[in-house]
Amino acid sequence: MSMKMRGGPLAGVRVVELTKVWAGPYTGKQLAFLGAEVMRVESLGSLDVTRFYGVDDINKAPGFRAVNPQKMSVQIDSKTERGVELLIDLIKAADIFIENLRPGAVDRMGIGYEQIKAINPNIIYVSMGMYGAEGPLAYQTGYAPCFAALSGLSAMVGYEGEAPTGMNIRYADSTFGTAAAFAASVALLHRRRTGQGQFIDVSAVEAMTSMIGDTVMDYTLNQRVGVCDGNKHPGMAPHGVYPCRDDEWVSIAVASDEKWQAFVAATGLTALANNAELATLAGRKAQEEALNSAIADWSQSQSAEEIVGCLMAAGIGVHKSLSSLDLIADANLWGRGFYQEVEDAEGNARSILGPAWKMTRPAAVVDDAPALGQHNQYVLGEILGLSEAEQAQLVADGVIR
Amino acid sequence: MSALTNIKVLEIATTVSAEYCGKLLADFGAEVIKCEAPDGGSPTRSLPPFAAGESGLFAYLNTNKHSIGVALDADAGRAILVSLLAKVDVLVCDQAAAWFEALALTPEQMLAANPKLSVCVITPMGFEQSNEYAQLEDLNVLHASGWGYHTPSAADPAKPPLKGPGPHLVSYESGLDAALCITAALFEREASGLGRFIDISKQAVMASRTDYVLGQMIAGDMNVSNDRRAYDLAGPADIYPCADGFIYIWMSAPTHWQALATMLGAPAWMADFPENWLERECTPERVAVCRQHIGEWLLSQKKESVAETAQKLGLIVVPVNNTGDLLHCPQYQFREYFKTVDHPHLGAVSYPTVPYKMSLTPAALNTPAPALGQDNSRYLAQVEAEA
Predict the structure, then answer these.
(1) Are A2 and A382 in contact (CB under 8 A)?
(2) Which architecture does CATH list for A14-211+337-396?
């Protein structure tokens, strides 16, 4: 059987995804970056909305391309009976199937876990939903900020004493997607050792709660609820984001009493240095507002770069708060090879974000996101073994394009 | 057996990231041997939240693990480390390159001595930059990734960007990527017999989580700037106060607008809006008017009931829960997200588990976090006998 081999730990693993928007596609991307052969099944009649956000050409949608590099696309009309048959044949040839459609959609299509298990008993079937596949609230749907709101996470992000703001609106999908990818990888290992596949039911809301596990423990142990606390940290002061010249911001975290001494020495803030009460964490926490004001007074006349230079040398946790302009020029991200070049369907180079990891014997990341149906021939001919005449007939019948 | 039964992991953690990674592996039956400094142990033993004089953070991160107390900076400790590295399948740690050099035991040397071993190192900016940036805290990394600068959405330029939820978000995210890579490496090792070196950059993990926007920016498809709202979406979606707390409302499509009209009984103010305004004509003026009316209406609504009614009409409204609400949520209860663990000092309390329910190899919390060095005799006696 044919397989796209690019090296990496998951080389030889075939993943079929029926996913929309960001979370499910991010799961597929993480597996593709580890070397799996990942194919998206797409249908012109129910296209992923990110294929047409802000563009007329569905093959050039920038959001879609940003999240789907290194994958293949086969276009099958899943609203036709023959289309569903083809989809099932493809899942039969897969190791992992990922779906994040609306609750109940896969059952209506005849591709629920029990149905797929009957034809591919060892499949690893990954179902992704806001609240998971089953349960009293599983019927509810939402987008990323809803996951964060339901999870307890958003209520903790905001300025002290004010209404919660939550994280930036983009937060949640990619974290949820990674949790699903990890579970799929665990299941792959189990299958290789025992031959058994399994069903994985992933909840976006719970994925968010797992990002605040310590705060949840504070509730179960002490009945203390996580609330908006600005930039405070229970075990560090100063711990905040301070204004600099030209509307720049710098994050500063002083992790110990020893580092506090280094901080006041490096900054030359003698009034703070001479205040003996500030020598301990408890003392600094007690005067945190005044402390933050004094630091802001000091920081606002300098550039972020000057402050970083001063505090890095003193061993303090410090970094400029990077804007999007800063990020695309960031020396560490470039130096690491995080920004990479791939090739699109027409042979043009395109920049993407590569994997967050580096590893020995990595997968080669080489391809841009696929054009719609770009890999029809590979999938239908080489994987499913359909002749050219059979494929032509499917086109004539409107099942594939 | 669970998925990682018989997999041995040595964990040498100074921060939450490697400790969380070890926990994710221990959940699936890996035998995680936690190597701690004999005086005081893991730094997370001294981090909040506390109860009965014990760290709840440590209790959460170290279920199912074993603890040995070893001074790695002494010759005897180094010998124990060498011996353990010959026996385990994975080393997960979060030290800078200088730490490995001081031990005269680089990751390359570890892999050469035991080719089946995988070594995963989690650092703020990646292993090559690990000495220079060892002092960075999670707050700094969040702000090196773009999440900090762009949080909150709709930022007020006079107020500072925020740190995100709790103190450890960056570490949890990075531990998750590390666990993904480690299990993938173990999968491949079944065929090749070879382990790997895995280098996780926390900054890259967090930046990767923004791929939908930063990926467009690096490709030249989206403008870059110093605008703190550069990652935002236009529209009325937001957190709103209601009668008994806060709700989140999402509206982006004409179907949402129609559902809102049904819910409100088609009030006069909605008649001035085009049906498809959310998709095609989302002007700041319309957003402001819409926000004002929705905001006034919601002040009289209760979060649970308004969410339920809206969801059934196809309007996406959810309550903004706090951590206390979760234990009473019927969905969390149905999925058994919380499990009781009986800890000798903390007692029997609910612990959060994991977001993935697996039909054959469910994650399990079997034993509470270990006391410092409680497994010394089990692991060290054998090593010392060999020495």
Answers:
(1) yes
(2) 3-Layer(aba) Sandwich (3.40)
